[in-house]
Design a protein that fits this description.
seven-stranded parallel beta sheet; 37% helix
Length: 347
């Protein structure tokens, strides 16, 4: 009998060729049901009830009610890093391991974060926008509002995991002083990666000329960059977020930009995607002069390249199929993120 794997919110066009290639390589009979929906309700109950494994991106919320509908499901894999759209405890209560794919786009996101820094600090976004409007009259050496020299400036990372460390390495190559805040890294991590470590978030924010976020979205990091945190940043600093939109309070960011306290911000992610109705985004869309060259937006694509898409698809499939065919204990599934919850549920 073939294994049934559902991909409800696939982020690619066409058939699941990458996934089926992994199954063939492993000698398994797998039927992939690929959908492109935004909500679990768009998939019928009988489909949810028949699946052995779930590979989910970030659109579909896998909550307790949905997990209850997946009578046969033995593993869930988040096609990405963050698992904030999955109820880890509810999955553990059913004995279902939840895995992620932590390494599919490490270099791509790191490159994007540095690219956003350059867009602000070298005026690339500022001049590009002006020249689009009128190349002749704007062909002049007008200083951008966030422009500054990178060499000898201070670059700080919040969350020095795989991506955070890759960004720090790139920043050092640009002759920037580098530092990070991450309470979860073991003592000595600063020596291993060659960066200054800060004991508190506000210590880092008060030191850095540019701050880049690389944290998951958790109760502790939701609105991490609120009014108090943004006020703690150095005057004229810039904020970059390629992590999770919910880590930044957009109201507070709009106020910090509007007051001139921050020189600029670059966001690949937003609290609500697609964006809807926020005054900061409306001002950006209207090209209001006060934001000219100070706000860079990209549509949750910091991870994207043809290579990263292939990696996320193949690595997610391999994690799911390894588990379904290998007989491992639930907590031993590849890149399992709810192992402690599984252990507690079976204790």
């Amino acid at each position: 009998m073939a294994l049934q794997v559902l991909i409800p919110d696939a982020k690619y066009d066409g058939p699941p060729e990458v996934e089926t290639a992994v199954a063939r390589e492993m000698g398994l009979d797998v039927r992939y049901d690929v959908r492109r929906v935004r909500h679990a309700a768009e998939v019928a109950d009988d489909v949810w009830g028949m699946i052995d494994g779930l590979q989910v991106y970030h659109d579909v919320v896998v909550d307790q009610a949905l997990i209850g509908r997946m009578a046969r499901c033995r593993i869930i894999c988040r096609c990405g890093v963050g698992t904030d759209n999955i109820d880890l405890a509810a999955a553990a209560a059913r004995g279902i391991p939840v895995c992620n794919v932590p390494d599919y786009g490490t270099t791509d996101v790191a490159d994007s974060a540095i690219g956003m820094l350059l867009a602000l600090r070298r005026g690339i976004g500022f001049h590009h926008g002006r020249l689009l409007r009128d190349p002749a009259s704007h062909w002049q050496q007008t200083p951008g509002p966030a422009v500054g020299r990178l060499r000898d400036s201070r670059f700080g990372v919040v969350g020095a995991g795989r991506i955070g460390q890759a960004v720090l390495r790139r920043a050092r190559a640009l002759d920037m002083a580098t530092g990070f805040y991450d309470p979860f890294l073991a003592d000595g991590a600063d020596q291993a990666i060659g960066c200054e470590r800060f004991a508190t978030l506000h210590d880092l924010l008060g030191w850095a000329d540019a701050v880049s976020l690389h944290t998951p979205l958790t109760p502790a990091t939701r609105r991490l960059m609120d009014g108090a945190a943004l006020a703690a940043m150095r005057p004229g600093a810039v904020l970059i977020n390629t992590a999770r939109g919910g880590c930044v309070d957009l109201d507070a960011l709009a106020a910090a930009l509007g007051s001139g306290h921050l020189a600029g911000a670059a966001l690949d992610v937003l609290p609500v995607e697609p964006p809807a109705g926020h005054p900061l985004l409306a001002a950006y869309a209207a090209r209001e002069p006060w934001l000219d060259g100070r706000l860079v937006l990209t549509p949750h694509v910091a991870f994207y390249s043809a290579d990263s898409v292939r990696d996320i698809r193949s690595k997610a499939s391999r994690a799911v199929l390894d588990y379904l065919s290998g007989g491992q204990a639930a907590g031993q599934a590849r890149n399992c993120v709810n192992g402690e919850l599984l252990a507690a549920a079976t204790a």
